[in-house]
Design a protein that fits this description.
binds uracil; about 260 residues; Uracil-DNA Glycosylase, subunit E; about 45% helix; alpha/beta; 13 helices
Length: about 260
């Protein structure tokens, strides 16, 4: 099937049907779906781009547009409010990669805006950046769905990560940051395929397609473990990142935790 519209449609139809079956409220009747299948747009539309390989996109904007209508995981299509593609400077020197959007991110369409995100923002500011200077993304671009009645978040499954990873890989390829910070075990596993305990991995430089990757704890870990020693470890990792980027490190930054912890 070479027509991208037909390809996209073929991919979208199972999701639309599932949506109709699961929720019983989608306005996609059989007649309507069949009419859609027969319809030919005057020119290929962006929404259909999700059928095209992420690797084929040459810039971030069309990649984002295609990711926003991705239907690779029908169960996530049915549960998400939106796709959280990523945010920040498309030419950033530094990129943070987390796990997956939570409820706040799903609602607002932006990564790391909930409690863990607020802590990440503080770390970014303490490094001397703003959120507009750097780029923030996740291994999974949709919020992992939750069983009805359950609160909180769940870890993405291996299948979800595998389906979503091409978006992140292309995102990284187009941004070409000078360094990446992998936040937590899911980010390291998604990017590097490593499943060693975080205690062994954090503070180490790894390599992703020749881009140095610093592994550190996820900010939500710090929210649950308020000990100064764990916060200091993350800060030490961030100092290594600043050093790697050739950024000046002030005396205040060097002694941040010695002073802040008093
Ligand atoms: N946790 C993540 O890993 N990513 C987000 O975007 C928010 C919370």
């Amino acid at each position: 099937m070479s027509d991208p519209f037909q390809q996209g449609l073929a991919e979208a139809l199972p999701a639309l049907r599932a949506l109709k079956g699961d929720r019983g409220k989608a306005g996609a009747s059989r007649t309507c779906l069949e009419a859609l299948q027969l319809a030919k747009p005057r020119k290929p539309i962006r929404a259909i781009a999700s059928a095209v390989s992420p690797a084929s996109f040459k810039t971030l904007t069309p990649l984002r547009e295609a990711a926003l209508v991705c239907t690779k995981c029908p169960h996530l299509v049915a549960s998400r409010k939106g796709v959280v593609f990523g945010a920040g400077n498309p030419s950033a020197d530094l990129m943070f990669v987390g796990e997956a959007p939570g409820a706040d991110e799903d609602e607002q369409g932006e990564p790391f805006v909930g409690p863990a995100g607020q802590l990440l923002t503080k770390i970014i500011l303490a490094m001397g950046f703003t959120r507009d200077d750097i780029y923030i993304s996740n291994v999974l671009k949709c919020r992992p769905d939750m069983t009805v009645g359950m609160t909180g978040n769940r870890k993405p499954t291996a299948d979800e990560v595998e389906a979503c990873l091409p978006w992140l890989e292309r995102q990284i390829d187009l941004i070409r940051p000078k360094a990446i910070v992998a936040l937590g075990a899911t980010a390291v596993e998604g990017l590097m395929g490593l499943t060693e305990p975080m205690g062994n991995l954090r503070g180490r430089w790894l390599d992703f397609h020749e881009i140095p990757v610093m592994v550190t704890y996820h900010p939500s870990y710090l929210l649950h473990n308020q000990s100064i020693s764990e916060k200091r470890k993350v800060w030490e990792d961030m100092l290594l990142v600043l050093e790697r980027l050739g950024r000046p490190i002030s005396a205040k930054q060097k002694s941040f935790f010695t002073v802040a912890s008093k």
